[in-house]
């Protein structure tokens, strides 16, 4: 039961997790057959090709040539996270890819790849929130510009 509540909470459905905890406090310790424990929501189809094309036309980074199952899995996870956060995924991807193009640290870093962006939600969110945005003259990257 604890694992089930943790799983539901991890999926972001706090109300469902709280409802399940309250239900578990009741006198019966058997889950009724008609009880729905996990809501299954079908998301819109992920526009894999459009996302890859947007990356290829925006970032200036190496082009995505193949959409492997692993890449699609990462893209679907990030797409669904953006949908759940009530953001327009394609607009968010456009913003993220533009930030990569416009930021020297992200643009020139070999570590900042298509796979890295979609590897986990932290990478994508850090770019979206501006953690890598140029900060002007005080930017750490500027320190290295004058070195030989």
Walkthrough of the structure:
By secondary structure, this protein is mainly alpha-helical. The protein has 2 domains: 1-40, no CATH class; 48-138, no CATH class. The chain is 59% helix and 0% strand. The protein is built from 9 helices and no strands. It has helices spanning 2-10, 14-24, 48-58, 69-84, 89-102, 104-108, 114-119, 121-129, 140-145. α1 packs antiparallel against α2 (14-24) and α3 packs parallel to α5. The longest helix has 16 residues, at 69-84. It is globular and about 55 Å long. 17% of the residues are buried. The model is unreliable at 28-41 and 137-148 (pLDDT under 50).
Helix and strand layout, with pairings?
Layout: H1 2-10, H2 14-24, H3 48-58, H4 69-84, H5 89-102, H6 104-108, H7 114-119, H8 121-129, H9 140-145
Helix content: 55-70%
User: How many extended strands?
Assistant: 0
| Secondary-structure element series | HHHHHHHHH
Low-pLDDT regions = 28-41, 137-148
Distance between the termini: 61 Å
Count of individual domains: 2
Structural class per helix/strand content? mainly alpha
Report the β-strand fraction as a percent range.
under 5%
The coarse silhouette is globular
Tell me the major beta sheet: none
Q: How many individual helices?
A: 9
Rg computed from alpha carbons, rounded to a whole number of angstroms:
21 Å
Mean pLDDT: 77
């Amino acid at each position: 039961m604890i694992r089930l509540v943790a799983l539901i909470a991890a999926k972001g459905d706090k109300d469902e997790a709280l409802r399940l905890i309250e239900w578990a406090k009741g006198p019966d310790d058997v889950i009724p057959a008609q009880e729905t424990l996990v809501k299954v929501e079908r998301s819109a189809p992920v526009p894999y090709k459009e996302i890859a094309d947007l990356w290829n036309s925006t970032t200036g980074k190496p082009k995505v040539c193949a959409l492997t199952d692993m890449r699609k899995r990462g893209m679907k996870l990030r797409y669904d996270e953006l949908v759940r956060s009530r953001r327009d995924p394609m607009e968010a991807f456009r913003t993220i890819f533009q930030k990569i193009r416009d930021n020297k640290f992200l643009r020139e870093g070999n570590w900042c790849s298509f796979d890295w962006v979609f590897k986990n939600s932290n990478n994508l969110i850090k770019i979206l929130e501006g953690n890598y945005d140029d900060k002007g003259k005080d930017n750490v990257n500027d320190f290295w510009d004058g070195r030989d």
